[in-house]
Design brief:
Naphthalene 1,2-dioxygenase Alpha Subunit, Chain A, domain 1; seven-stranded antiparallel beta sheet; binds FE2/S2 (inorganic) cluster; binds fe (ii) ion; 373 residues; Rieske Iron-sulfur Protein; single chain
């Protein structure tokens, strides 16, 4: 993994940008064909060759806090069931009974076992088929080969990653900063909504600060800066940092003593479709699940530290208002882009040097699609 800047380096880079009225710049621009946002064939390739072959965050570890905790969700159009076993290990299965395919769970909760509601086949938390009612009706059934079908799962940095269609037998490397979602975090909310836009337009909205003044004039801009970001890449992922105006207080702190918590938002983009954003009092993981070519289900997992919840509930609520207002503004723009595509005005969308994390995203997406060709 390419190393990300530490607190001291990132604070210095931001203070220098403020002094020089500059921002991070990518080496090159990018022109993305509009057709790639409108083509169902392209979406199929994206799902097949990028989403399903990449170790992708399914949910935060905090969504599976104890043995028996489960969470069911579609990922890249495939129904999955994540479960924490009695041994504490997080496992993910394809969410379908091995008898005749009924889904075993929906939503999230806690169970001792999964019993199919159709005919009662029962599976353990480890996915093993434990019981078949009246099993003399299946004289040839080998229970040991009829457990739930597992998906390659790895838990790292407080995130449950799944690889639905591994391209190698060896585990694929996972690029995730150490300790990103720490064990002190609790899941405080899970919500979802549908945005009427292609998933890539939604993703792009998270990955640059060039629009802070124009789009977020009364929400983010009063506390942040327009077009002032640090942009880093790690593997196929990126991290875009959005400083707050209060970062100026670090000028009077010795460089080695500088801590950036509360003075910026880091937006981590996990290729291809997951965002983790840090706010002063909460963290949000956002999963973008395509619902066809022109709609995206946005699933948000919101986390906060136990101690913050105990001592500063107000702060946690304040963050929510801040984030939600900005998110509504982004959604308006994103849906407008989707509608605007019908104008036929653009054959390509232009991404400039401020939008380097988006360039990185499209370059990697093109490469992933080309590799499978
Ligand atoms: S489909 Fe699950 S027990 Fe029959
Ligand atoms: Fe925005």
């Amino acid at each position: 993994m390419g190393a990300l800047l530490d607190d001291r380096a990132i604070a210095q880079r931001i203070l220098d940008h403020i002094d020089n009225q500059t921002t991070d710049l990518g080496e090159s621009c990018w022109r993305e064909p509009v057709e790639n946002y409108r083509s169902p064939e392209r979406l199929e390739l994206e799902l097949e060759r990028a989403f399903r072959t990449t170790p992708t965050p399914l949910c935060p570890s905090a969504a599976l806090p104890t043995p028996g905790s489960y969470l069911a969700r579609d990922a890249a159009g495939v129904p999955l069931l994540a479960v924490r076993g009695a041994d504490g290990v997080a496992r993910v299965f394809r969410n379908a009974c091995r008898h005749r395919g009924t889904q075993l769970a929906c939503g999230h909760g806690r169970e001792k076992a999964f019993v199919c509601r159709y005919h009662g086949w029962a599976y353990g938390l480890d996915g093993a088929l434990r019981n078949v009612p009246h099993d003399y009706g299946f004289p040839e059934l080998d229970k040991t080969t009829h457990g739930l079908v597992p998906v390659r799962t790895e838990e790292r940095s407080g995130i449950v990653f799944v690889t639905q269609q591994p391209t190698t037998d060896a585990p694929q490397p996972i690029d995730a900063p150490d300790g990103l979602l720490g064990p002190e975090l609790q899941l405080i909310a899970m919500n979802e909504s549908v945005t009427e836009a292609n998933w890539k337009i939604v993703a792009e909205g998270f990955l640059e600060g060039y629009h802070i003044f124009s789009t977020h004039r009364e929400s983010f801009y009063p506390v942040q800066f327009d077009n002032l970001n640090v942009i880093e890449r790690f593997g196929r992922n990126s991290r875009v940092t959005f400083p707050y105006r209060n970062i100026q207080k670090l000028r009077t702190v010795e460089p080695e003593q500088r801590r950036v918590a509360g003075t910026l938002t880091h937006v981590y983009h996990f290729f291809p479709n997951v965002i983790v954003a840090t706010f002063p009092k909460r963290m949000v993981m956002t999963v973008l699940e395509p619902q066809g070519i022109s709609a995206t289900r946005t699933v948000n997992y919101t986390l906060a530290a136990e101690v913050t919840l105990a001592t500063d509930k107000e702060g946690v609520e304040r963050d929510a208002g801040f984030v939600n207002r900005g998110a509504r503004e982004d959604r308006d723009v994103v849906e407008s882009i989707q509608r605007g595509m019908a104008s036929g005005a653009n054959e390509v969308f232009e991404f400039g040097r401020f939008e380097a994390a988006i360039v990185h995203f499209h370059r990697n997406l093109d490469e992933a699609i080309a590799v499978g060709a």
